[in-house]
Amino acid sequence: MAKTITFAVMHFSIAFTVAYLITGSFLVGGLVAVVEPAINTVAFYFHEMVWTKLSQSKTAADFKQSIQNASESYALRSI
Fold first, then answer.
1. How far is CA 56 from the centre of its chain?
2. Nearest of 61, 59, 62, 39 to residue 51 by alpha carbon
3. Exposed/middle/buried for 36, CB within 10 Å: 0-12, 13-18, 19+?
4. Total-model pTM
5. Would the CA dihedral through 29, 30, 35, 40 be positive or negative?
6. How many CA atoms lie within 13 A of 25 on its CB side?
């Protein structure tokens, strides 16, 4: 948990610093430091959902292929 918290602090700090250096405004820097990581967190959640579904479908396809290969191999040994 400490690693997550320190990463969040680092992320907010970088977002604030970049926005402040570009705009010269503490208000804009603060807004970007809050809004950007929040949007990024939501986007990451959906990215993980899609990634998991793709990984599971690939795993299922690999499993089906390995069963098919095993049954073909067994059939050839039976002849």
1. 15
2. 59
3. middle
4. 0.55
5. positive
6. 7
Show the tokens assigned to 57.
Answer: 């479908």
Distance, CA of 45 to CA of 41 (rounded, Å): 6
So what's the pLDDT on residue 18?
93
Structural element, H or E, at residue 1? none
Q: What does the alpha-carbon distance between residue 47 and residue 60 come to, in Å, rounded to a whole number?
A: 20
Which secondary-structure segment (H or E) carries 79? Answer: none
Tokens 């977002």 sit at which residue? 15
State residue 41's pLDDT score: 83
Rounded CA-CA distance 16/24 in Å is 11
pLDDT of 50 reads 87
- As a whole number, mean pLDDT of residues 42-47 equals 88
Contact between 33 and 12 under an 8 Å Cβ cutoff? The reply is yes
